[in-house]
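Help needed: design a sequence for this.
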């Protein structure tokens, strides 16, 4: 048995921009050489194998989501039962798969409008991948379209604030992010007041109704709206960007999906398996525990890598290959266990509709050879996706 203090000290640096651009060679190295890798100098271990990550996500008693710090906007994500159960049940009443299905016609209209506005040399992230999910979530929350750009910046700041509070990032970044978060919360207060006076048929009114029954506090409604804004747009935007980059490099796949649009849900799922937008999930051990032969103490922090789990050859054959027809069951791109992504049905719906519209509207797409694409790196790079993705498009 390996003792944690022995750890491993070389071969993997999460902060290296090259690793962030393409983490998959490092993930392979980790799975093969150090499946329970100790980050030098930190009480944090990185898990990379499917079996271990799946076990941790499904055992919330031994592996807690509570980091011992209070980040109200992350309250759902960072709570254990019974608090988590109460919140998730109350929120689940306002955010049901049936209500999400009702959004389909509106999502299609938004996607059609955005696609119609794209020209033959569009930058896909700013023209489509970002505005689609932010518009959908703003409409669900009753936030007027004019505030879309501010929402994007505020929600990015709020995300950074939560990272910074977990110890990532500098004090300056924390201060900037906190200012953004405060602006967002103040704005959401106004939106809640308006809906309290005049309920509408939207998510925020449904949440206020749950609050009236005494199941949620006003603060919990506010923080949940904030969480939805953060969770609901950056991840889905990155899914759309990654899917488009895959298609732009694979003409055969583009043609196949054009003629077989019923394969689009499988395409979306395989995109989440091979390039999960959320690349890091954190848990804390509640007691001493052994994982893959490594003894870990209580209060050890675990960084789980769903992107690595999803390419584990122990789980899938030819795991690096993008295969539409494979059985995707068991991928961890949306997590697993009690914290399984609440928005997965919405992300899948947006993904399906977005690619149906794009495949219908455009005859060919390819990466623009004159303008390089820019992957996301840096402070917030727990995300995998594209900052910019310039394309050449042909209508028809
Ligand atoms: C492709 C898009 C998405 C991906 C890859 C994704 C991924 C994830 C993952 C991995 C988790 C689990 C985190 C953990 O276990 O700690 C999670 C949780 C969550 N996601 Fe998503 N997500 C996506 C889209 C969305 C959308 C569109 C929404 C809502 C509008 C959303 C709302 C949430 C919420 C509220 C949680 C917390 C659930 C809980 O703690 O019980 N997500 N997501």
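Sure. Designed sequence:
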């Amino acid at each position: 048995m390996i003792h944690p203090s022995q750890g491993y000290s070389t071969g993997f640096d999460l902060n290296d921009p090259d690793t962030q651009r393409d983490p998959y060679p490092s993930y392979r190295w980790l799975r093969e050489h150090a499946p329970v890798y100790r980050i030098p100098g930190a009480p944090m271990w990185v898990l990379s194998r499917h079996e271990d990550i799946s076990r941790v996500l499904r055992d919330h008693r031994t592996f807690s989501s509570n980091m011992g710090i209070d980040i109200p906007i992350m309250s759902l994500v960072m709570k254990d039962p019974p608090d988590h159960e109460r919140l998730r049940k109350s929120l689940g009443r306002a955010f049901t798969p049936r209500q999400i299905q009702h959004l389909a016609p509106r999502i299609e209209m938004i996607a059609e409008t955005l696609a119609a506005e794209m020209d033959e040399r569009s930058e896909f992230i700013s023209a489509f991948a970002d505005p689609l999910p932010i518009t959908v979530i703003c409409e669900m929350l009753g936030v007027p379209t004019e505030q879309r750009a501010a929402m994007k910046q505020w929600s990015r700041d709020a995300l950074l604030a939560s990272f910074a509070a977990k110890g990532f990032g500098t004090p300056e970044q924390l201060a900037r992010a906190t200012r953004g978060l405060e602006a967002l919360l103040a704005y959401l207060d106004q939106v809640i007041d308006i809906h309290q006076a005049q309920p509408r048929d939207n998510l925020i009114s449904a949440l206020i109704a749950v609050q009236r029954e005494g199941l949620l506090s006003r603060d919990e409604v506010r923080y949940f709206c904030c969480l939805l804004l953060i969770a609901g747009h950056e991840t889905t935007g990155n899914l759309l960007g990654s899917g488009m980059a895959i298609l732009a490099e694979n003409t055969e796949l583009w043609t196949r999906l054009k003629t077989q649009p019923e394969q689009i849900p499988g395409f979306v799922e395989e995109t989440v398996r091979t390039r999960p937008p959320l690349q890091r999930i954190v848990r804390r051990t509640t007691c001493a525990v052994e994982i893959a032969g490594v003894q870990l103490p209580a209060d050890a922090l675990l960084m789980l890598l769903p992107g690595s789990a999803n390419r584990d050859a122990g789980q899938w054959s030819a795991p690096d290959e993008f295969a539409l027809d494979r059985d995707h069951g068991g991928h961890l791109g949306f997590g697993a266990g009690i914290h399984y992504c609440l928005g997965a049905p919405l992300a899948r719906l947006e993904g399906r509709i977005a690619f149906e519209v794009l495949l219908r509207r455009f005859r060919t797409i390819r990466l623009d050879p004159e303008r390089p694409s820019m992957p996301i790196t840096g402070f917030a790079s727990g995300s995998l996706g594209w900052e910019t993705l310039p394309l050449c498009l042909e209508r028809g």
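The chain has two domains: 1-7+29-57+279-309, 59-278+333-395.
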